[in-house]
Write a structure and sequence with these properties.
Nonspecific Lipid-transfer Protein, Chain A, Acyl_CoA_acyltransferase, Acetyltransf_17, 8-stranded mixed beta sheet, Aminopeptidase, binds acetyl coenzyme *A, 31% strand, alpha+beta, GNAT_dom, acyltransferase
């Protein structure tokens, strides 16, 4: 599929394409040019021509839709016009909203070259894409953001967060929970399959989790490196088998090197489908000799680990990162598929500057199951909130009362905020360890 249209000036053309079996995998093909243009935006080097077919295979498996904005009026010596000056990519994966894994619109690879920035190119691509995604029936758009200032203006709200942690694994480190199952290093040839199997179980049971793209298990397991799709021999993979012998968690990690003090192991990826598998993976990490510190950037904010340690001061939080940003495209479809706690009825008025999701909606929840209906004409809302606030509230990563205090949500009736807190509340925080 190729669509060409004008964006902001007659010299700029937007070309949108998907990757079929006949896509040219050579360095001269449009895919390689698109990929290298994306690399420019994220300050990466030019891709090795040998690697392009593997990236093509990965992007094809993800069924990515790639957008490039091409400038046909550049100086003669400039990169030729087949190298887009702006890139944008989308794909569809699942988001766990409790009652279901729903298909959502993922946005990625957003770049605009320095020579063309702040001329409205991102705005032009994103407003069109969000509208088209809504028209295709996708209820929610999601992304992970390079900077927290970019996407609020397009109606996204920060929805999940993680902690970067540093754990002292010297003698005082001890997991007090009763030991169970076995944790062991596995051979490379089984790594991708096991990583995918464990992630699938984790994803199905974790509110806020997003399905992973093709390359993820390869990078997590070391089959692909960070820079190139070739084996990264520094990455080790340990799998936890539960008492029944089922793989229930894995951790991949690399040693930071003897010149780094304290001696540090960095977790590349850690996925556990049960609480005990999680603690057993930490017991394993704590048993690595000659290591003083283990670092990991994807811990839950409500992490059980410090509560399971003999000395909780082994556990330090070094930072908080936003992960998933959510944008409502179809409020009844999005809210109607999520699971809730308890029962109650409330009318929400949603404000959306882009005009995609605004309106008044009745949310009626009975024993955790919602019926959501758009309301016609003038209705008295219990709560007015921005589309950003609704995106943040959607996965329960922040309470309505916090959003009210922050000014994104206004209650018009008594108890409305308390009811939202109760309905949208979760036993555990939403948790997403998929970046894209
Ligand atoms: C999901 C992802 O892929 S996250 C990755 C995002 N990309 C990057 O960080 C790569 C480096 N940055 C870039 O390539 C570009 O600066 C982009 C893509 C962030 C912005 O592209 P531009 O075409 O310059 O944005 P555009 O001109 O459409 O700006 C739209 C609005 O966003 C604002 N804006 C754009 N980028 C930023 C930013 N980084 N911080 C704050 N505001 C921003 C503009 O000021 C403008 O505001 P206005 O419409 O209210 O006047």
């Amino acid at each position: 599929m190729v669509r060409v249209s004008e964006t902001t000036t007659p010299d700029l053309q937007t070309r949108i394409f998907t990757l079929g079996p006949d896509e040219d995998p050579s360095a001269d093909g449009r895919f390689a040019k698109w990929l290298n243009a994306e690399g420019i935006g994220f300050h990466e080097g030019t891709f090795d021509p040998e690697d392009i077919p593997l990236y093509l295979q990965a992007y094809r498996a993800d069924e990515r839709v790639l957008w490039g904005v091409h400038d046909t009026a550049q100086p003669a010596e400039a990169l030729d016009a087949d190298f887009p000056v702006a890139t944008y990519g989308t794909m569809v994966h699942t988001l766990n909203v409790g009652a279901a894994l729903i298909d959502v619109h993922q946005i990625t690879a957003v770049t605009v070259r320095a020579s063309h920035r702040r001329q409205g190119i991102l705005r032009s691509m994103m407003t069109r894409d969000l509208r088209e995604a809504r028209d295709r029936g996708l209820p929610v758009a999601i992304l992970t953001a390079s900077e927290a200032t970019i996407y609020g203006r397009f109606g996204f709200g920060c929805a999940t967060l993680t902690h970067s942690i540093e754990v002292d694994v010297r003698e005082r480190f001890e997991v007090t929970a009763r030991a169970t199952g076995t944790t062991t290093l596995v051979a490379r040839e089984h790594a991708v399959r096991l990583a995918e199997q464990v992630f699938t179980a984790f994803d199905a049971s974790t509110f806020g989790s997003v399905g992973r793209q093709y390359a993820y298990a390869r990078r997590a397991s070391g089959e692909w490196g960070r820079e190139r799709p070739v084996e990264d021999r520094a990455v080790r993979l340990a799998v936890h088998y539960d008492a029944a012998g089922t793989p229930a968690g894995y951790v991949t990690y690399r040693f930071a090197g003897w010149e780094t003090t304290p001696y540090t192991v960095k977790v590349v990826d850690l996925v556990a489908s049960t609480p005990s598998a999680y603690l057993e993976l930490w017991r394993y990490l704590g048993s690595l000799d000659l290591v003083q510190v283990v670092t990991w950037d994807e811990a839950r904010r409500d992490d059980a680990l410090p509560w399971a340690l003999r000395d909780r001061r082994c556990y330090g939080v070094k930072g908080t990162d936003d992960v998933l940003w959510v944008r409502m495209l179809d409020v009844p479809a999005a809210l109607g598929q999520r699971s809730y706690r308890g029962s109650g009825k409330i009318v929400l008025e949603v404000l959306d500057d882009l005009g995609l999701a605004n309106g008044s909606f009745s949310l009626a929840v009975a024993d955790g199951v919602a019926v959501v209906e758009p309301l016609e004409g003038a209705q008295t809302a219990d709560v007015t909130l921005t589309v950003n606030a609704l995106g943040s509230l959607y996965l329960g990563g922040v309470q309505a009362s916090t959003l009210a205090a922050a000014g994104g949500l206004t209650a018009h009736t008594d108890d409305a905020v308390a009811l939202l807190d109760a309905l949208f509340g979760l036993a555990q925080e939403p948790y997403c360890i998929t970046h894209f």
